Amino acid sequence: MGPRELGLPMPVASPDPAGLPAEVTIWEVGARDGLQNEKETVPLDVKLEFLRRLADAGLAVLEATSFVHPKWVPQLADAAELIDGLDQAPGVRFPVLVPNERGLDRALDAKVRDIAIFAAASETFAQRNLNSGLGEQFAMFEPVVGRAVGEGIAVRGYLSMCFGDPWEGPVPVEQVVATGKRLLEMGCHQLSLGDTIGVATPGHVEALLRAFVAAGVGVDEIAVHFHDTYGQALANTATALRRGVSTVDSSAGGLGGCPYAKSATGNLATEDLIWMLDGLGIQHGVDLGKLVDTSVWMAERLGRPSPSRVVKALSS
Q: What DSSP string runs through 188-250?
C-alpha cells in the first residue's frame, strides 16, 4: 500500500538531474545482515520463504547469506544449503558475503557469481572483527578479490565504521577515504559505506561523500548502509541521494545489528526507505504492500513486532 491507496496526495517532488537520482537500487540485506544476529536459529525453510517473498515483492538484489565460519556466525551455518535451495528468480541477484579465501572456495563450490567482502575503516574494529590491523586487512582481501574477478564474479566492498567506532570515537574522513579507495583499486565494483553503529548525521555524510569525490571516486561507485540508532538513517539517506548516490542498503522490517558491535541497532527499514522514495518521486520497483506483508510474516516467526514505522502504520 502506498500514498495513493491511502488517499494521500501524490508526491510533488521530481528527481533533479543535478541532484536526486531518477531510480534507486535497493540492496536488500534482511536475509543476511538482518538475521545474522538472531539468537534463536531461524529454520532454513523460513529463510528460503523469506527470500522468495522478498523477490516476489520486486526486490532485485537480495543478499542471501555469508560463507563465514559457523563458529563466528552460527545463524548462517546453513549457507551452502540455502544457496542450493534458492528459487533463482529471473532478474534477481543473490550476492553473498565471503570473509576470506576459504569462504570464496565455498562460494565457488556453490556456483555463486556475486560476492561481497567486508573491511573496516577503524583499527579497533579491524582487530576485533577481522583479527587484523587496519593496513594489514588488505592482505586477506587481495587474493579473494583477485581470484573472484578472474572468475568473472562481481565483488562488492563493504566498509564498516565509516562514521564512528564505539571504541575510538569519530573516524577521520581521510582514513575512510584512503581505505575505501584501496578496496576499489583492488577490483571491487562498488563500495558500501557503513554507519555500523548509527552515529552519522547528514553533515557528516555530506562531508564524507564530498571527500570521496574529491579523491576521484564517482558517486556511481558508492552505496550507503545506515543503521538507525539515533533516528538519522532516513535523513542520512536523503543526503546521500542528493549527492547522487543511487544504491541504498536496507533491511525488510528494519531487522539487523552487528554481532561484533553491540551498540549497533537495526538497519534502515526497507519499507521506511520506500515510503520516502515514493514521496520524492524516485523509482524503485518494489510493491510496498507485498513487502509489508512479508515483514509482518517474518516478525511473527521471530516472535516480535517489526521496528519499522511504515510496517507498523500499514499493518495496524
A: -SEEEEEETTS---HHHHHHHHHHHHHTT--GGGEEEEEB-TTS-HHHHHHHHHHTT--EEEE
User: Known catalytic residue: 258?
Assistant: yes
Distances (CA, A) of 23 to 34, 49, 66, 244, 312: 24, 27, 28, 11, 26
- Closest C-alpha among 181, 185, 183 to residue 138: 183
* Set 208, 258, 276, 311: catalytic member: 258
Q: What are the cell numbers at 189?
A: 565494483
For the stretch 132-168, pLDDT in tens is: 889 999 999 999 999 999 999 999 999 999 999 999 9
* Amino acid of residue 13: A
Smallest CA-to-CA distance from 57 within 295, 224, 301, 282 is with 295
At residue 240, φ and ψ (nearest 5 deg) are -65, -40
CA distances from 186 to 5, 140, 142, 161 (A): 47, 12, 7, 20
Identify the H or E element spanning 147.
Answer: helix 138-150
Q: Which of 103, 95, 213, 108 is nearest to 158 (CA)?
A: 95
Checking DSSP bridges between strand 154-160 and strand 96-97, what pairing results, if any? unpaired
